[in-house]
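yo

u said u wanted the structure for the complex thing, so here. seqs first:
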Amino acid sequence: MLKNDNFLRACRREKTDYTPVWMMRQAGRYLPEYLATRSRAGDFLTLCKTPDLAAEVTLQPIDILNVDAAILFSDILVIPEAMGMELQFLVGEGPHFPDPVKTAADIDKLVIPDPMDELGYVMKAITAINKGLDGRVPLIGFTGAPWTLATYMIEGGGSKNFAVIKKMLYDQPDLLHSLLNKITEAVIAYLKAQIETGVHAVQIFDTWGGILTPDDFETFSLQYIQRIVEEVGGKVPVIVFAKGAGHMMESIAQTGCDVVGVDYMSDIGDIRRRVGDKVALQGNMDPCNLYASPEVIRRKVADILAKYGEGSGHIFNLGHGILPDIPVEHAKAFINAVHELSPAYHKG
Ligand code: CP3
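structre next:
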């Protein structure tokens, strides 16, 4: 039994007494406690693969910030690694695949991992987290969207113009589809295993969905997200967060997901008018707003609550992940402001 199920109720657009809030990347480098645990692990990937330590950092923001949901500590790129690609995290440079996917032979070599085996450390972390949570708040599992995973697997890491994957998209669309199909299969098995192990909701991160034209977004990203939602939806709430896709909200809402993530470039009131009768919304304060003073943070929280307006179906969050150099006191001011100012919108 969950002691605080406000997050799950909001996902289903059921009544709550206040607006639940959590932050993308809430277990991260802005917390000194996170940095201490990471240095005990040695490096970021080892932290992901050590269930007790992954559980420890997942719980830190629950204890320190009083957020209404926990999110599994891991990374979206553990899937390509389990599919057979070597993954490195270079300090200060982000993720790197030294042998990116180039050819049909490279795609053939990728395996569909058994998530209970090759990603067993994630399942062990989920069990350890739920033990540590003891029902205080729900636990969110996650995956990268196939398109976003493919960008890293093909570009070999982060990218500015996504030249390599876009060239493949235009010149060899069938090759790209064969990779996306394989990733989708792996993702479905992975999310089913997370749900079976005990996560209460799942989020699909399509960080790079917004770099596609609307047609290409439908063809190369959304169609695969839709398949994932069809396979895992109904069991637990499914959240789809596609950054930079404010113009695609109607299409995303039509996948059958329960919650649509709204990034900070969109007006959440406008999005509610467009799709708020179909889905709950999650978002959307500019992560850079947390550099400002606690008074300004509180004012911006009030603005977003007013834009969404009265009633259920809003999960407060940032419009993308919290940044590593945000003062912890500002993150606390953000969470407290949502808890203090939102009950006025849930009286009816
Ligand atoms: O939200 C959470 O607290 C859960 C943990 C989580 C991480 N990564 C931890 C992490 C989640 C949900 C992710 C998802 C993820 N990883 C995404 C999609 C979401 C997004 O932010 O757009 C992407 C694109 C990745 C790939 C990735 N992992 C990148 C590009 C980087 C480098 C980022 C940077 O700022 O250096 C990572 C590393 C990473 N993943 C860190 C954390 C806490 C920092 C690693 C460290 O401790 O040094």
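The mean pLDDT is 97. The two ends are 26 Å apart (CA to CA).
cya
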